């Protein structure tokens, strides 16, 4: 058994494990894919103090930093069940897909999230070559250019407002007959001169020249007509899904979006179980925030372990 078991090896989990190991706790970290979403990222320009890096490089540095400590790294391990301790100070248990199970007095959940894909031709092929998911991350790469935002919920409309300030022109594409974002956001969006809004528009393809995105094809769901918009970038904003499906039966409190509910100390509703990063209710999903949250969860686990008698 470990004193602290971290589930998830992205920025949040890596930070958490380094912090608990530095407190002298026996620490294990189990991850389906060490590195997490960072592995799918190309240029990273907002990891403060590092003006430019690339996803695979940052993932290797996370692994190297974890490797500096006596941390038991278990890569390619998918957790499928959490069995919380029956009393405070007791052992929690995590069961993995391969049948193995691990126990620890404190658990830090950092299983991250995944962007919902459109699932149209061109989306995968041009990922990081015009197809983007994070306006905070990639907006400045499209300075002065034409982009589309797919999705008319709050995140899509916020992204369109954000991008309109940076890029040349934004086309917001919504599948439904009306936008679903809060009225105040819709009003703001409609006040912007360089934004077009398309509703009842089903994106059917993202096109490119073999190198980069050059357009988007959509079908007007009322007339059935197909149209093309010429542009250089497409931001897909149809939802960020937390990797928490496996926790639904555990007694852990989740939000209506499936995010793990945490307080300002990264504590969940279950004593000794903490959570950090994109899988939680923390606002804004970013690398630097996930690392801060992972560190915070680790310090809270430390606090819990020194105050709680082993049961
Ligand atoms: P993740 O990175 O999602 O890591 C989750 C970890 O949990 C992984 O190791 C995963 O394999 C593991 N896991 C999941 N389920 C299980 C399970 N059941 N059992 C065991 N392990 C599991 N942010 C920025 O700040 N700047 C950027 O430029 C930027 N660009 C991005 C570009 C792209 C294409 C994407 C997808 C994201 C980008 N982000 C960027 C967002 C950033 O990557 C995330 O906010 C950050 O990685 C979240 O860290 P995390 O540790 O919470 O989760």
Automatic annotation (TrEMBL):
<feature type="disulfide bond" description="Redox-active">
    <location>
        <begin position="134"/>
        <end position="137"/>
    </location>
</feature>
<dbReference type="GO" id="GO:0102039">
    <property type="term" value="F:NADH-dependent peroxiredoxin activity"/>
</dbReference>
<comment type="similarity">
    <text>Belongs to the class-II pyridine nucleotide-disulfide oxidoreductase family.</text>
</comment>
<keyword id="KW-0285">Flavoprotein</keyword>
<keyword id="KW-1015">Disulfide bond</keyword>
<protein>
    <recommendedName>
        <fullName>Thioredoxin reductase</fullName>
    </recommendedName>
</protein>
<comment type="subunit">
    <text>Homodimer.</text>
</comment>
<dbReference type="GO" id="GO:0000302">
    <property type="term" value="P:response to reactive oxygen species"/>
</dbReference>
<dbReference type="GO" id="GO:0016668">
    <property type="term" value="F:oxidoreductase activity, acting on a sulfur group of donors, NAD(P) as acceptor"/>
</dbReference>
<dbReference type="GO" id="GO:0051287">
    <property type="term" value="F:NAD binding"/>
</dbReference>
<dbReference type="GO" id="GO:0005829">
    <property type="term" value="C:cytosol"/>
</dbReference>
<feature type="binding site">
    <location>
        <begin position="268"/>
        <end position="278"/>
    </location>
    <ligand>
        <name>FAD</name>
    </ligand>
</feature>
<feature type="domain" description="FAD/NAD(P)-binding">
    <location>
        <begin position="3"/>
        <end position="294"/>
    </location>
</feature>
<feature type="binding site">
    <location>
        <begin position="146"/>
        <end position="160"/>
    </location>
    <ligand>
        <name>NAD(+)</name>
    </ligand>
</feature>
<keyword id="KW-0560">Oxidoreductase</keyword>
<keyword id="KW-0676">Redox-active center</keyword>
<dbReference type="GO" id="GO:0050660">
    <property type="term" value="F:flavin adenine dinucleotide binding"/>
</dbReference>
<feature type="binding site">
    <location>
        <begin position="3"/>
        <end position="18"/>
    </location>
    <ligand>
        <name>FAD</name>
    </ligand>
</feature>
<keyword id="KW-0274">FAD</keyword>
<dbReference type="GO" id="GO:0032991">
    <property type="term" value="C:protein-containing complex"/>
</dbReference>
<keyword id="KW-0521">NADP</keyword>
<keyword id="KW-0520">NAD</keyword>
């Amino acid at each position: 058994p470990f004193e602290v078991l971290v589930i998830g090896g992205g920025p949040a989990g890596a930070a958490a494990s380094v912090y608990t190991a530095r407190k002298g706790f026996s620490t294990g970290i189990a991850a389906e894919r060490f590195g997490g979403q960072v592995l799918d990222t190309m240029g990273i320009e907002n990891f403060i103090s590092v003006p430019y890096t690339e996803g695979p490089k940052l993932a290797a540095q996370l692994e190297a930093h974890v490797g500096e400590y006596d941390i038991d790294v278990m890569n390619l391990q998918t957790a499928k069940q959490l069995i919380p301790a029956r009393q405070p100070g007791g052992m929690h248990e995590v069961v993995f897909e391969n049948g193995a199970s691990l126990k620890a007095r404190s658990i830090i959940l950092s299983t991250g999230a995944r962007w919902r894909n459109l699932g149209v031709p061109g989306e995968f092929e041009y990922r990081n070559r015009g197809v983007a998911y994070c306006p905070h991350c990639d907006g400045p790469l499209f300075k002065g250019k034409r982009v589309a935002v797919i999705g008319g919920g709050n995140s899509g409309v916020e992204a369109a407002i954000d991008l309109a300030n940076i890029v040349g022109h934004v086309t917001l594409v919504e599948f439904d007959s009306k936008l679903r974002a809060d009225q105040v956001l819709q009003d703001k969006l409609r006040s912007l001169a360089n934004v077009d809004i398309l509703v009842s528009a089903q994106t059917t393809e993202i096109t490119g020249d073999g190198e980069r995105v050059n357009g988007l094809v959509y079908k007007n769901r009322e007339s059935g007509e197909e149209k093309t918009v010429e542009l250089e970038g497409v931001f897909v904003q149809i939802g960020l899904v937390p990797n928490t499906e496996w926790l639904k039966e555990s007694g852990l409190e989740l939000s209506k979006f499936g995010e793990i509910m945490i307080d300002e100390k990264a504590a969940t509703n279950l004593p000794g179980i903490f959570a950090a990063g994109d899988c939680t209710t923390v606002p804004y999903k970013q690398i630097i925030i996930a690392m801060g949250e992972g560190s915070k969860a680790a310090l809270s686990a430390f606090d819990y372990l020194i105050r709680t008698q082993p049961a």
